[in-house]
Recover the amino acids of this structure.
């Protein structure tokens, strides 16, 4: 057996099940789940219809590179969304469809990490646990960069020692962040690109929440746009990961893409060819239509705005928490230990939230997830309002 498997920590939802073991939720209340970031808005009809319309294509093997129509739709969306010159993204060499960003974020580390005794993978803390597992199974060591109110919930690049930069092979970034919701400014992204050039490491920017934001006039910037505006027009050392799961409410479609540095993607394609993970043809057809359409995403943002407005009005008196810059999570600080808060909320109100410590690690400074909870506002508006009322009632009882 691969000995590195023993280094993997339990997934957050395994730990949540252990926390709730032996407890019974309030029987007089319907369950409300705010723990998993699974969108509950309806998948647009045109996406569903496209899958059905192309079921005949199941008779053909798909290619790992994906169909040209899909790659061109992705390149067009990147240009629109991040203000890139038309044709800047080469659909043939700089775009690769993947079956959701989760598997791609993991597999990418297996491609780019050179197995040495001192390889480092830097990542935000708290973080999406796939980053950590990918680093460990690629033979590298994770280095956790605490994201706190003092750092604007972004990694403090100035705090990283020179020796760590020299050992860094891969830097995982999530913007807008999960769970904190912070958006990396373009100037911050450009500073990271300059560090990657100086110390020769790769940036993997997880941008799967980039189309979920509250200010319609200020969409979150992305890594490719940051590269463009400092002259890195080939996106060297930079790749971005995007998904239709959040943008288009289609988590079951398992559709996303990786884009950026052509040489990195050439090698990643080789890995994926052996891995055997090409996207089914009906999924490709539906995905091309989804990336070509922006209107359904605007309506999606409207729905999230309504939920944040309603929920924050309820929770404001008991929590020091505001709307995030992007994504659909709230990250409030709890009046008691986060695990005690989550367990009590489940028992008394039948509402499930995720303890912050399940998304973070204890680093040299502290564990930035302790005494926070992640609340995913993915349920319908009326359910979010009812859940917020229960959370407030539970908090006021402590």
């Amino acid at each position: 057996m691969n000995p590195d498997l023993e280094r993997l920590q339990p997934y957050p939802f395994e730990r949540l099940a252990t926390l709730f073991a032996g407890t019974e939720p309030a029987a007089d209340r319907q369950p409300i789940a705010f723990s998993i970031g699974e969108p509950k808005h309806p998948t647009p009809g045109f996406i569903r219809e496209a899958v059905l319309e192309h079921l005949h294509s199941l008779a053909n093997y798909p290619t790992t590179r994906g169909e040209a129509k899909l790659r061109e739709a992705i390149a067009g969306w990147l240009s629109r969304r991040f203000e890139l010159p038309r044709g800047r993204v080469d659909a043939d060499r700089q775009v690769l469809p993947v079956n959701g960003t989760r598997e791609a974020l993991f597999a990418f580390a297996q491609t780019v990490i050179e197995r040495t005794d001192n390889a480092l993978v830097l990542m935000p803390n708290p973080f999406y646990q796939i980053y950590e597992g990918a680093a460990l199974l690629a033979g590298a060591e994770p280095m956790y960069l605490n994201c706190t109110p003092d750092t604007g919930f972004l990694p403090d690049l100035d705090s990283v020692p020179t020796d760590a930069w020299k050992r860094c092979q891969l830097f995982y970034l999530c913007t807008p962040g999960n769970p904190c919701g912070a958006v990396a400014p373009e100037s911050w992204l450009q500073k990271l690109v300059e560090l990657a050039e100086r110390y020769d490491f790769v940036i993997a920017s997880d941008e799967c929440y980039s189309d979920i934001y509250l200010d319609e006039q200020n969409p979150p910037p992305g890594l490719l746009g940051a590269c463009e505006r400092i002259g890195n027009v080939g996106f060297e050392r930079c790749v971005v990961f995007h998904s239709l799961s959040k943008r288009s409410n289609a988590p079951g479609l398992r559709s996303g893409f990786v884009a950026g540095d052509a040489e990195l993607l050439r090698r990643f394609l080789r890995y994926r060819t052996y891995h055997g993970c090409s996207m089914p043809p009906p999924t490709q057809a539906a995905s091309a239509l989804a990336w070509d359409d922006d209107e359904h995403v605007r309506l999606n943002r409207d729905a999230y705005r309504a939920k944040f407005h309603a929920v924050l009005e309820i929770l404001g008196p008991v929590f020091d928490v505001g709307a995030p810059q992007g994504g659909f999570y709230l990250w409030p600080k709890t009046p008691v230990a986060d695990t005690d808060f989550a367990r009590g909320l489940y028992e008394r109100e039948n509402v499930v939230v995720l303890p912050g410590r399940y998304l973070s690690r204890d680093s040299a400074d502290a564990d930035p997830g302790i005494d926070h909870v992640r609340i995913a506002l993915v349920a319908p508006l009326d359910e979010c309002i009812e859940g917020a009322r229960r959370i407030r009632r539970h908090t006021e009882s402590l």
DSSP finds 14 helices and twelve strands in the chain. The first strand starts at residue 32 and ends at 33. The mean pLDDT is 96.
